[in-house]
Amino acid sequence: MAVTIQRSNRVTCAARICLEGISLRTLATIIPGIAPVDNLSEFLETVPHREHPGITSLKTVHLPSQLADAAQAVLEKHPVSQLAERTLQISTYLWSRKRPVEDETLRTKAAELEQKFLEKMAPLSAVHESLDPLQVEEQKENLRRQVLAKLRKTTYHWQPLNYDKELSLVYMAARMNGVYAAVSRAFHEIKKRVPEFQPYSLLDFGSGTGSVTWAAHQAWGESLKEYMCIDSSSVMNKLADLLLRGGSESSPSHINAVYFRQFLPVSPKVKFDVVSSAFSLNDLPSQAERISTVQTLWRKTGSYLVLIESGTREGHQILMEARDVLMGAKVSRESRSGIVFAPCPHDLPCPKFAQKTILPCNFTQAYHPLPYTSKQDLKLEKFSYVILQKGEYKGIERSWPRIIEPVLRRPRHVHCHLCCSDGTLQHAVITAKKHTKDLYRCARSSNWGDRLPVSNLETEKESENVSESDNLPST
């Protein structure tokens, strides 16, 4: 594939813009079917290719030493039998967990099953005329029992998780590291792309063991002065507070001004610079409650709303449901009062849903697990996320396409699967000869989840690649 702008045109255009004192990044344009990329060789200046401005992924994440030591102290004081087996069980359960089935869906499904059973019973309809009313009622009751039995076998049974003291410890050992890794990755992107952003306050909905608080403190500890943790489980709140104190109730907290509540603040005037919900929306019992919660969180957002769920089809669809509620076509520009900051380079519908086989948009983050809960040295957290920003984003690099699959590095060419600013999925095969050495080296240095800083790169429409990797639990 050839670059759509010839070299001579690029040089002439670059020279003219330099004379006018305009940044080379302003050349990025949105062309239907073409990824918006800044492939002029001058844009890097003195920055190494391996550190190009589109890189937002993190290297392997380590849990803060104070938190790791506190978790170990808590487990030593309150040992849990068969901890390794139970952490694997709860991890697998949470990964495979689906959304609650809505009442309307159940009614529709029950009506369809009833109709099927009635069709099977049609030959007996003539016999019904000779039956007495009591026998007719008995057959109707039998039909209801058959419908209910079939519904139980074919319907997912969502149940709320009620955390007691022991289950909260199992959850801590199983998920604290993974949650911290995914949230750190999301916060890192905000910090890198908007280095001047210095939040004062944080609201964490579904705070659990407090991983979000620790990740936020790691990212913006110097500016954050208030951490509001919301979790309906009082047991979880006590455990999170105990971890902040190093595992001892009498010790001072490692992070100051952390407050725990079981309900969201009522006042609509109370806002927080960063609002987050990590792996919590699927704990809500209905779509109506998820939508209401997301709208409340958005109203309380001062700058950024960070939503993270498991990297499964269910997790991705939960996030897209929230994204559509706040940024969808039915929401006016005035009402939405914000944009999609990441990972989408656009506010358009997710192109994943336009494919015949709908696969989740997910990413991975490597992390070191707690040594006393796993024999592995390294694990990968697979997650989906969306970051919404209040107001307008001024940087032109927002339109840079996102790499949504592992980068395939081959001799003298690189395959990148991209989500582009025109709302399409594209496949770019990048070579030094056709796309300049700088862009080729940037692509080779990029990873799944990074953005490709290029413009006017000719690509191919994304093909239907069916993968079952999203059906496997994160390890």
Please provide a written account of the structure:
- There is one protein chain.
- It is built from 14 helices and 13 strands.
- Helix 7 packs parallel to helix 8 and helix 10 (287-299) crosses helix 11.
- The model is unreliable at 1-41 and 465-473 (pLDDT under 50).
- Helix content is 38%, strand content 15%.
- It is α/β, with parallel strands linked by helices.
- The protein has helices spanning 7-20, 65-77, 83-96, 103-120, 125-128, 133-154, 165-193, 211-220, 234-244, 287-299, 313-327, 333-336, 432-435, 437-445; strands at 201-205, 226-230, 258-261, 272-278, 301-310, 338-342, 363-367, 379-390, 402-403, 408-410, 413-419, 425-430, 460-461.
- Strand 1, helix 8 and strand 2 form a beta-alpha-beta unit.
- The chain folds into three domains: 7-54 and 400-471, no CATH class; 65-98 and 162-390, Rossmann fold, CATH 3.40.50.150; 103-154.
- The strands form two sheets. Strands 1, 2, 3, 4, 5, 6, 7 and 8 form an eight-stranded mixed sheet that branches. Strands 9, 10, 11, 12 and 13 form a five-stranded antiparallel sheet that branches.
- The protein is globular.
Q: What is the CATH class name of the largest domain? A: Alpha Beta
Question: Helical content, roughly?
Answer: 25-40%
Number of helices: 14
> How would you name the oligomeric state of the polypeptide chains in this document?
single chain
Largest sheet: 8 strands, mixed
CATH superfamily of the largest domain: Vaccinia Virus protein VP39
CATH architecture of the largest domain: 3-Layer(aba) Sandwich
Overall shape: it is globular
Q: Using DSSP, what is the number of strands? A: 13
Q: What is the CATH T-level topology of the largest domain? A: Rossmann fold
Order of helices and strands: HHHHHHHEHEHEEHEHHEEEEEEEHHE
Q: How much strand? A: 15-25%
Low-pLDDT runs: 1-41, 465-473
Q: What is the mean pLDDT?
A: 80
Question: What is the CA–CA distance across the termini?
Answer: 38 Å
How many distinct domains? Answer: 3
Helix and strand composition category: alpha/beta
- Computed Rg: 26 Å
